[in-house]
Amino acid sequence: MHEFAHGAKPRAGFEKVVLVTRKTRLAELIERFNTLAQAKFYIEHAGGNFQEYQLEDEAYRQSADVVRRAMELGLKVQEIDRGLVPTYSFLPEDLVVTLGQDGLVANTAKYVGKQPIVAVNPDAERFDGILLPFLPGQTGRVLEKVISGKYQFRSVTLAEARLSDGQRLLAFNDLFLGAQTHVSARYQIRWAKAEESQSSSGVLVSTGAGSTGWVSSVFNMASGVAAWAGGHTVKPMRLDWEDRRLLFVVREPFISRHSKAGIVAGIVEADFLQFNSGSSVVVTAVAETAQLVVG
Prior knowledge:
Layout: E1 2-4, E2 16-21, H1 25-33, H2 36-45, H3 50-70, E3 76-81, E4 94-99, H4 102-109, E5 116-120, H5 139-148, E6 153-163, E7 168-171, E8 174-177, E9 185-191, E10 194-200, E11 202-206, H6 214-228, E12 246-251, E13 265-268, E14 270-275, E15 280-293
Parallel strand pairs: 2-3, 2-4, 4-5, 5-15
Antiparallel strand pairs: 1-3, 6-7, 6-15, 8-11, 9-10, 9-14, 11-12, 12-13, 14-15
Helix pairs in contact: 3-5
């Protein structure tokens, strides 16, 4: 992590631009194997295309250089790796820029509070970037608009899981309720006026921003199986980013004498699960929202 300032006088409102970056696949491999040569040997020995790793890394480095130059606006600049985000103290005077895939935006948004996030796509050829409205070359113009207060943003609903022991977890995209290994878990689920015992690989809860991601793949699978079996296809349900509702699906529910599969999907504003360990979790949308700059 490093910090530096430029000579011009800081603008009003914001005092610092915080750039959140992430290591490329190649950078992670070099960190793991110590040298570029060893990383290359590992990839090629596994049948991979090492050149693709190099091209991806070079594209990210070039984008990072463009973004860093665009941030020379007379404000202090601090750059942090995504691994430091959970322990970094974001301040009300910070303007946050992320340079990475959608997951970097989602991970950062949980910790920045109401600070505006300028999400930049470092490699539009490789990443669709649903949450990445800007290219590196647009960064300077967008930052100027945010600093002047003449920008547009969308308030993205966050989901919260609060355990009975007081622990709290926020999610920008999804919450997964189940065993870390995704093995079958037994629990009680209550939704609307229905309640039942279930056994499944877990419950996936998504926000509007997440409804185009992981949970949509579950709908795609269900639709494909239904079509193969001669039934009706199922369209993935999508919610707006600002929607205060949450969407849930039960993954791989198992029917037995002790478990049912009557509650497998639905819309919730708050719900309750009790796990067989005696703990419970309440899932709901929270008052705070992420502020994603869109123009």
